[in-house]
Amino acid sequence: MKRSAPPPGRSISPPPVKRKVQSITTNKAVASFFKPASQKEPEKLTWRNVEKTLIVGRYDASNVPPHTRTLPVKVAAFDLDDTLIVPNTGNKWARTATSWRWLDQSIPGRLRSLYSEGYLVVILSNQGNISLKDNPKSLQKDTASLTNLKAQVTAIFRQLDLPISIYAATGQDRYRKPRTGMWEEVLENYDLQAAGAVDLSNSFYVGDAAGRAKTDKRRKDHSTSDRDLAANIGIKFYTPEEYFLNATAESYEHVFEPAKYLERQQFSELSSASLEKTTVSAPFTKNSPQELVIFCGSPGAGKSTFYWDVLQPLGYERVNQDILKTRDKCIRKAREFLGAGLSVAIDNTNADVETRSYWVRLAREFNVPIRCVHFTAPTRLAEHNDAVRALNPNTMNPEKRTILPGIAFASFVKRHQPPTLAEGFQDIYQVDFEFKGTEEQRQLWSRYWVSKFST
């Protein structure tokens, strides 16, 4: 439950500290970095790790009289790479204290101006090339990558010399943009979790991952994670060119918008001409005393939910390869159920004719009808569903599924052959994805969760 906002004018506790001081040159910052420890002044940048996936660095300028901000607070958030800085070497990214330069020379002054205007200035960056987890095979590499990132950020912050924090997501979890975990950590760290504590209308995020197409002067953006993060938070978004270089804003349309999917409730990209019309009328009913039902659909298309909501109450036993691990074990378990006179549901992807033929032969072996349930959710929707499920374990993931790699979805698309009655099915029942859940779950589902789709 959200806390109510404190009265207007109340300062933040603990308040972020402000200082007004001339900038330190890059050469001086680098020279300080390489000084022996005995000659250095106390370190102003402190680091901590959160849940072994999030790195937080906070620069302390406490020797200057603090600037007291009042609620609601305006937040100026930035990506790091290709937004504030770019590499000054041929390698991308060879991180050292000297391997970078500002994307534009106006940036230090712009950030200081924001701070003097009362903005809380933070950096939110995905750093997937770093791992904080204990992995003996890559320990030396991970340690070096983390050390290099800290060296670079130290040099950057010393040149800025203003109270600023960086949040770097290293895993594929709730902290990684466009998910809002880093933003939520900022709110907690600065005591801004109360409703209304942040001035969302005047806050903004600047980043280069905006989903833009390639031009003569720019390569294609690698994802939409920055644009989508701003949308998830509910704040304005700018590209670095728009914010720092006064470039004209480019029009953009998302290739997948969860909220619009909910509005339309039309979730199939497949042409109706490519599908055999089902001979089963809704709702799904059990036609025979004993049946074998197999699913065909992408991971994340809603297969397991359909089993628990529809088939389990009708008395079907479930066979699932995620649990049993191999097809042979699935066949043995299905044969055991059929031998006991039970109806069985095969909750696997069953993408192609060859895979489905194993189950057709098994049905014939036991002389029971075989039916197919075809789930039509397109790949982008399925990947979105998978991420929502995996990253919301307490509200939308009763089976504690972990997030799947993009190759799992790409592989299904490559192998997928729509089922036909000619394969031996009694009928084919089509299921188009339809969201069902509480209002809280709907709000979670409506966010952007995947920044780069596999197809």
TrEMBL record:
<dbReference type="InterPro" id="IPR006551">
    <property type="entry name" value="Polynucleotide_phosphatase"/>
</dbReference>
<dbReference type="Pfam" id="PF08645">
    <property type="entry name" value="PNK3P"/>
</dbReference>
<dbReference type="GO" id="GO:0006284">
    <property type="term" value="P:base-excision repair"/>
</dbReference>
<dbReference type="InterPro" id="IPR027417">
    <property type="entry name" value="P-loop_NTPase"/>
</dbReference>
<dbReference type="Pfam" id="PF13671">
    <property type="entry name" value="AAA_33"/>
</dbReference>
<dbReference type="InterPro" id="IPR036412">
    <property type="entry name" value="HAD-like_sf"/>
</dbReference>
<dbReference type="InterPro" id="IPR023214">
    <property type="entry name" value="HAD_sf"/>
</dbReference>
<protein>
    <recommendedName>
        <fullName>Polynucleotide kinase 3'-phosphatase</fullName>
    </recommendedName>
</protein>
<dbReference type="GO" id="GO:0003690">
    <property type="term" value="F:double-stranded DNA binding"/>
</dbReference>
<dbReference type="GO" id="GO:0046404">
    <property type="term" value="F:ATP-dependent polydeoxyribonucleotide 5'-hydroxyl-kinase activity"/>
</dbReference>
<feature type="compositionally biased region" description="Pro residues">
    <location>
        <begin position="1"/>
        <end position="16"/>
    </location>
</feature>
<dbReference type="InterPro" id="IPR006549">
    <property type="entry name" value="HAD-SF_hydro_IIIA"/>
</dbReference>
<dbReference type="GO" id="GO:0046403">
    <property type="term" value="F:polynucleotide 3'-phosphatase activity"/>
</dbReference>
<dbReference type="GO" id="GO:0000012">
    <property type="term" value="P:single strand break repair"/>
</dbReference>
<feature type="region of interest" description="Disordered">
    <location>
        <begin position="1"/>
        <end position="21"/>
    </location>
</feature>
<dbReference type="GO" id="GO:0005634">
    <property type="term" value="C:nucleus"/>
</dbReference>
<dbReference type="InterPro" id="IPR013954">
    <property type="entry name" value="PNK3P"/>
</dbReference>
